[in-house]
Specification:
heterodimer, A: alpha+beta, Ubiquitin-like (UB roll), 3 strands, B: mainly alpha, Ferritin, disordered N terminus, phenylacetyl-CoA 1,2-epoxidase activity (chain A), 1,2-phenylacetyl-CoA epoxidase subunit B (chain A)
Chain lengths: 103, 268
């Protein structure tokens, strides 16, 4: 995309923000979706309205979608397949102590 | 008004107050007059904000305004149920029987007009509910109980209005011009907010001073000019709290009440 058309798109439409919600203390933030907003403060508020209206969370992150570097589907095999046959990497040889949740 | 699952605390007919067999539904008691005034504010503004559904400038803002409308509708249901049957009050009263301030019935206009109306009203409502919620527990009325619960919702409404006022006022030349036009245009409806309401233990002078300070701070930060001149003198003779409403209110009411009046007792 040329710089001019990028600027044009920015004017025509608010940028996209990825939304992460922590559902309760002790858990990680989880990606739940995205919102459009003109800036970070309003992205947070839009995310609040769209993703926590049924008490889904206690904390919110918003991240500019363009700041996320994603792996490409073409790279799926070299990226992920080598891990498939290495069962010893899974912590299945330990006993989980009683009372440990969210492991 | 049934079938809205997002409404907090609004149990139809669940709250005490409406005395069975009382032809006036107890509406003449001071506590009930207060519940009616605050309930009508919330109901009418909810209806106005609901008009944005499907029409807001952005999908996200559509949801934000509808969320605020639902908060207000929930407050209205609780408050009106303190007085009488909520549906009867919402759908079957005539214009002159509504006790909301004229500010909340003003048309949505452009987005700036909706936002400045939200700013003026939500700052007022947050301060009012805050004072009511701060009373001693032994003095707590049902209205104060609702206020304590709703003040957090209202704080969010105020934040939403502030965020947008800053962006519209300090945005483009066009947004600044439109915001200033409505800051001036709606100013004359703000004096009525501080008319004492019988049955509410409120320091009205303090409320007005705090409101003015808060609104002034937001407007100045948004590079908007604070209107000068009196907000109140025009309204000394009466206004929405006495049942006198502006011309657009009739059309709002027609839309609000049409279905119920055409199909009495209709349900989902």
């Amino acid at each position: 995309m040329s710089e001019t058309s990028r600027q044009h798109r920015a004017r025509a439409e608010w940028p996209l923000w990825e939304v992460f919600v922590r559902s309760r203390r002790g858990l990680s933030h989880t990606h739940v979706g995205s919102v459009h907003a003109p800036d970070a403060a309003l992205a947070l508020r839009n995310a609040r309205d769209l993703y926590t209206r049924r008490s889904e969370g206690v904390s919110l992150w918003v991240v500019p979608a363009e700041q996320i570097t994603a792996s490409s589907p073409d790279e799926k095999d070299p990226f992920f397949e080598p891990a498939a046959d290495k069962a010893y990497r899974h912590p299945t040889f330990y006993e989980v102590p009683e009372g440990v949740r969210n492991l | 008004m049934s079938g809205t699952h997002d409404v907090p605390g609004g149990v139809p007919g669940g709250a005490p107050g409406g005395v069975p067999g009382d032809p006036h539904g107890g509406r003449d008691r001071p506590g009930h007059r207060a519940a009616l005034a605050l309930g009508d504010d919330a109901l009418v503004l909810a209806q106005r904000l609901g008009e944005w559904a499907g029409h807001a400038p952005e999908l996200e803002e559509d949801v934000a305004l509808a969320n605020i409308a639902l908060d207000l509708l929930g407050q209205a249901r609780t408050l009106l149920s303190l007085v009488d049957d909520e549906d009867k009050l919402a759908y079957l009263r005539e214009e002159r029987e509504f006790r909301n301030v004229q500010l909340v019935e003003q048309p949505n206009g452009d987005f700036a007009q909706t936002i400045i109306r939200q700013l003026y009203f939500s700052v007022y409502q947050e301060l009012l509910y805050g004072q009511l919620a701060g009373c001693r527990p032994e003095d707590a009325t049902p209205v104060a109980a609702l206020a304590a619960k709703a003040v957090k919702e209202t704080a969010y409404h105020r934040d939403h209005a502030e965020q947008w006022t800053l962006r519209l006022g300090d945005g483009t030349e066009e947004s600044h011009r439109r915001a200033q036009r409505t800051v001036d245009g709606l100013w004359r409806y703000t004096g009525e907010l501080f008319q004492p309401i019988e049955g509410l233990d409120i320091d009205w002078d303090n409320l007005r001073a705090t409101w003015t300070t808060s609104v002034r701070a937001v407007l100045e930060q948004a590079t908007l000019r604070v209107p000068e001149g009196s907000q109140g003198a025009v309204w000394a003779a009466g206004g929405g709290r006495q049942g006198v409403h502006t011309e657009p209110f009739g059309r709002l009411l027609a839309e609000l009440q049409y279905l119920h009046r055409s199909h009495p007792e209709a349900s989902w």
